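User: quick one, sequence for these tokens?
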């Protein structure tokens, strides 16, 4: 006991006791979802056949004189002199093939050159417009990778049971099945808004499928690495279930749910400062069409109902969570909505 009177010894003991909980991590976790990213990049464009040159059959066209151009020598002498000009003999070359003159050739060639120049100008303008469009798409990004994280009070046990049910029954190998996972997970969170105390969201836009897949997989692995033991999994219809020895329950306990979505198209989420913003974000995620879904994963901890996630574990593993700033409702104490976004000192 006399050694504890030394200030240096007291500081060492206090620091040791402070750091012991920080070595622990969320005990159990669950994962459900899948990926539909294509294994090969885009289809190759087929070349269109070049147009065939126009037919030159018009050069062989023959012009024959109409039969009325010939008059008989026994014409009546009583014909008027005004019609005498119609009586003539056609020259012998009248039935021959008409040969194009040099002036007509030069005129046609000039028209062809002008048309070719106009065509080249149009193609050049279209090419410039297409390049500008594709460059703008690349800069903006047409694929969205979304991460939505929600912190809840530990009383939301019904949420754990619902996520367990979704994982055990979901078909995670089709776009329709992933869409159902996303809809049911967001609905489960909407049913537990009273227990939500903090949240975090981010949307990263990518222009290439490979980059979107890499970003999604990175998020997935980062969140899964926070679990000490993944006890329930359903990823691309690969299922595992195991039991883990859990510690005794304590007073302060929390639940964290992370939703990851990769979608085709631009998706924007509101800044989440409270349950109203969280409701809008969850409705937006649940409304994503199955035809646009490229990957979905829902991760949560603790997975087992008798497991706990302490406040220190929450703050150390999920520093991005920001507490809600909404004014407490009537009859609700302010300390019922603690701020869980501060970094652990």
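Assistant:
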């Amino acid at each position: 006991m006399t050694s504890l009177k030394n200030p240096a010894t007291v500081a060492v003991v206090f620091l040791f006791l402070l750091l012991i909980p920080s070595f622990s991590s969320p005990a159990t976790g669950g994962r459900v979802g899948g990926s539909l990213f294509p294994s090969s990049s885009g289809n190759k464009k087929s070349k269109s056949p070049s147009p065939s040159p126009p037919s030159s059959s018009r050069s062989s066209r023959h012009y024959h004189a109409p039969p009325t151009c010939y008059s008989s020598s026994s014409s009546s002498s009583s014909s008027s002199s005004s019609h005498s000009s119609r009586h003539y003999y056609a020259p012998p070359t009248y039935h021959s093939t008409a040969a194009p003159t040099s002036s007509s050739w030069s005129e046609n060639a000039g028209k062809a050159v002008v048309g070719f120049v106009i065509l080249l100008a149009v193609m050049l303008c279209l090419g410039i417009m297409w390049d500008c469009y594709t460059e703008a798409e690349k800069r903006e990004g047409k694929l969205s990778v979304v991460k939505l994280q929600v912190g809840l009070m530990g009383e939301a046990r019904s949420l754990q049971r619902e996520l367990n049910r979704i994982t055990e029954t979901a078909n995670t190998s089709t776009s329709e099945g992933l869409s159902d996972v996303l809809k049911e997970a967001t609905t489960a969170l909407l049913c537990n808004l009273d227990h939500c105390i903090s949240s975090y969201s981010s949307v990263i836009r990518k222009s290439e499928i490979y980059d979107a897949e890499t970003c999604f997989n990175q998020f997935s692995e980062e969140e899964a690495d926070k679990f000490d033991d993944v006890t329930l999994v359903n990823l691309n219809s690969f299922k595992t279930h195991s039991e883990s020895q859990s510690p005794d329950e304590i007073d302060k306990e929390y639940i964290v749910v992370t939703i990851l979505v990769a979608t085709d198209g631009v998706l924007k989420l509101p800044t989440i400062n409270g349950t109203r913003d969280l409701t809008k974000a969850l409705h937006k995620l649940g409304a994503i069409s199955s035809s646009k879904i490229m990957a979905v994963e829902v991760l949560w901890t603790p997975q087992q109902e008798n497991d706990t996630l302490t406040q220190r574990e929450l703050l150390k593993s999920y520093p991005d969570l920001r507490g809600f700033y909404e004014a407490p409702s009537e009859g609700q104490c302010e300390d019922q909505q603690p701020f869980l976004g501060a970094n652990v000192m």
